[in-house]
Amino acid sequence: MSQSGLEPTNDCVRIEPDTLSSASLESFPVENSFHPITSSRINGRMPESCKENVYDGSGKNDSRSPSPLSEESCDRKRRVSLLEYLYIELTRGYWLEHDQARFMERRKRVYAFIHIPIEIEKFITFGFFQCIDVFLFIFTFLPLRFLRAGLKFCYRGCLTSCLSSSGRVLDPAEICDLLKAIVLVSCCLLMNYIDVSMMYHVIRGQTVIKLYIFYNMLDIADKLCASFGQDILDSLFWTATEPRGKRREHFGVIPHLLLAIVYVFFHTLLVLFQANTLNVAFNSHNKALLTIMMSNNFVELKASVFKKFEKNNLFQMSCSDVRERFHLMILLTIVAVRNLTEFSWNMDHFWILIPDIILVMIFEFLVDWVKHAFITKFNEIPSEVYREYTVSIAYDMASSRHDNAFSDHLDVVSRRMGFIPLPLAVLLFRIVVHSVHLKGFFSLFLVFLFYLCLVTFKILNSIVLLGKAHDLIEESKRAAAAKSETKVTPAAQTTSKDDLELLAMPKVSSTELSGDQAVRRTQSLADLATEKEDDELQPSPEGPLDSTAYLRSSSFATNSLLYNSTVSLQSVGLCDSCVEDEREAAPFSTARHRETPSKDKKVEHADVQPLSEVDRFTMVCNRII
Fold first, then answer.
1. Less crowded by CB within 10 Å, the N or C end of the chain?
2. What does DSSP assign to residue 45?
3. Stretch (H or E) spanning 323
4. How far is the CA of 370 from the CAs of 115, 116, 118, 121, 239, in angstroms?
């Protein structure tokens, strides 16, 4: 106890103020709330006026025992006036550089938070134009592919029936094109029996709360149908193109085709209800319903921001945001067309709708930015992950253009984004056909020109997307190659026994070494140990420089490898049994360098000399490697 400054006495404890720290004083048990020593200390040191009297435990006040006057004077000096307190509060400072790493990390997070909207918009823009490419494919190239497949089916069908051939008439891709066209035409015919105007007035007669709940229900139902609808279409395509040699494990092509038609028709009705509800919100007088619908986006923040996300989950949510944005654009287009139709295509009313459309899109953008920024912040996901997502969908687009592609680009985007263009295409075709009335040859000519414009835009969009996808893929490959070159391999971090020998040896030209000595540099540990025994028994005359002899004679104190090293090689803890194993294996491993001992000649190990520091160091390095 004397070493720590505390000595036990009869009734109390003697305290040495020079050796006792403030932390120990605070933890020291005292019976009274006031302690003369601790109350008189300032910043861990005792004032000079309080050091004159210290209680020694004898009950007498000697030259160091405290008195009431000294306690009062120390307490009086400890007090701080109000002005002094205000002065301290106004003048006290601090240095942020003492916690530099934490503040730099905070600044990086702020920069990443600001950079997230840019990265997410790059990804959404690339995915948005992919959705446009897929959507335009239905109106431009799918009709042409349908005509080509139909003519080929009629031509080859006649030849097959005449020649009694059992081969497949159409390719799998052509069969899928025929099925898609049949589903589209069937749903367009069924949608002609739906009265859109009556549906609009029924929805408009409901209260605001009912419409708000109804719109949320439609939104959820649309996402569920989109997730399950692609499985229905894929099962239809596989059933129709499955090789005939396999065992039949399906209901047949016709039931699958009817199921696909029912799904697309039902999904189209859901989207039509959504469009009419949004149209009612735009045409309401107080805009209350539109405000409630826009506030629904902030409910999405609560449902997603405070959840744990991995990179794969964030990728799925980002693709879903791409699909939602394109879906909203189609709904707003349908609302604009319906309003212009009711007002006989008066463009003045269109300019009235523009502010509301822009407001809805602004809210959609802001919600996406805030959502992704906080998700990446809370889950510590870097902003560079959106570049990886962009490269992933670029690979999807490039792979769908290969000769041996597994699926069409339309189906690839549908699976990746959760975006099924067939219901939207059916609904848009239904709205446009009933909103635009065509009369005469000139109207048909305008329709043909409009079709050529769509084909031109589709081709231009595909070329730009493929070029961008190629650039993204090449940039990703270059970045991966550069990362692999800069990455240090584990083999480069280790040093072999030969390298240690070369470090310890002076620079000697290859002409000064004989052939036998050049071989010795690559010998094993047992060879070096055996050569050491032979050299000690038969010292050779002066001649060319021997690497092993140099290792024994040279001092490691001046070598750069062990310079300033205070570790003794005798204390490395080398297992003696391992050393004996190495030395026992030495005669067998050096058979090619010296004469093989006779059978009746026994190797004596009793006279083996103890290992030197050089040999122990070499053995340790060999076992570490």
1. N
2. B
3. helix 311-342
4. 12, 9, 12, 12, 44
Residue range 411-434: mean pLDDT, rounded: 91
Cα 132–chain centre separation: 27
Stated pTM of the model: 0.65
**What span, in angstroms and rounded, lies between the C-alpha atoms of 419 and 326?**
9
DSSP 464-484: HHHHHHHHHHHHHHHHHHHHH
What SS3 state is found at 14?
strand
Q: What is the pLDDT of residues 348-390, one digit of tens each?
A: 888 888 988 898 899 899 999 999 999 999 998 988 899 999 9
Q: How far is CA 35 from the centre of its chain?
A: 58
Q: By the 8 A CB rule, do 331 and 264 touch?
A: no
Q: In this predicted model, what pLDDT tens digit does every residue of 319-332 receive, in sequence order?
A: 999 999 999 999 99
User: Any bridge partners for residue 7, and if so which?
Assistant: 14
Task: Give 210-226 pLDDT, tens digit per residue.
Answer: 888 888 899 889 989 98
DSSP string, 342-394: HTTT-HHHHHHHHHHHHHHHHHHHHHHHHHHHHHHHHTT--TTHHHHHHHHHH
Give the C-alpha separation, 281 to 335, whole Å.
10
H-helix or E-strand spanning residue 8: strand 6-8
Spacing of C-alpha 93 from chain mean position: 41
State both tokens at 117.
């909207």
Place of tokens 């290992």: 611
**Separation of alpha carbons 542 and 553, rounded Å:** 14
Q: Residue 78: pLDDT band by 50, 70, 90 thresholds?
A: low
Q: Which residues make Cβ contacts (< 8 Å) with residue 419, sequence separation at least 6?
A: 131, 134, 226, 322, 323, 326, 327, 413
Assess contact for 395 and 473: CB atoms under 8 A. yes
Region of 567 please: left (phi>0), alpha (psi -120 to 50) or beta. beta
What does the alpha-carbon distance between residue 453 and residue 326 come to, in Å, rounded to a whole number? 21
SS3 readout for 187-249: HHHHHCCCCHHHHHHHHHCCCHHHHHHHHHHHHHHHHHHHHHHHHHHHHHHHHHHCCCCCCCC
Query: pLDDT tens digit string along 131-182?
Result: 999 999 999 999 999 999 888 888 776 766 565 555 677 888 899 999 999 9
Distance CA 380, CA 273 (A): 40
Average pLDDT over residues 58-72: 50
Distance CA 429, CA 420 (A): 15
pLDDT given at position 73 = 55
CA distances from 146 to 179, 180, 350 (A): 9, 9, 36
Cβ-count burial 253-265 (b if 16+ within 10 Å, e if not)? eeebbeebbebbb
Predicted pLDDT of residue 300: 78
